[in-house]
C-alpha cells in the first residue's frame, strides 16, 4: 500500500467565490471526498460499512491552516498520512499542494461510531490492522 495515500481533486467552479478563489468551507467538502477515497483504498468502502455494517467515521476534531489561495480550475494534490490509531479513533494529517506549492494542511480526528446507537466503538480488528499499516515509520 502506498504511504502516504495520494490523490488529486480539481477545484471546480462551485468550490469558489465570485473571484474564482477557493471558498474554505468547500475545502472541507472536498476533504470529505478524499477521506471516502482513502477508506476505499484501505478496503472499507463507506457504502458498505455505513449501509451493511452500520458503523461510520465521523469527524470529532479538525484543524486547518491555509497557506496560499487556490483558484478555479487548479488541480489540488492531497497526501493523507495516518499519525495515530487509538481504540476507536484515528488521527489523519492532510497536506494539500498545487504545482509544488503548499496550499493548506489539516489534522483531523475520526472516530469509529455505531450509527444506530450514536456511540463510539472500538475499531474492528481488520480496520485497525489496515490503519496501523499506514503509519509511516520515522526514518531518522
UniProtKB/TrEMBL annotation:
Record has DNA-binding as a keyword: no
Q: What is its EC number?
A: 3.1.2.23
Q: Which GO terms describe its molecular function?
A: 4-hydroxybenzoyl-CoA thioesterase activity
Give the record's keywords alphabetically.
Hydrolase
Among Gene3D superfamilies, the record links this protein to: Hotdog Thioesterase
Superkingdom: Bacteria
The record's InterPro entries line, in alphabetical order, gives: HotDog_dom_sf
Q: Supply the name of the protein.
A: 4-hydroxybenzoyl-CoA thioesterase
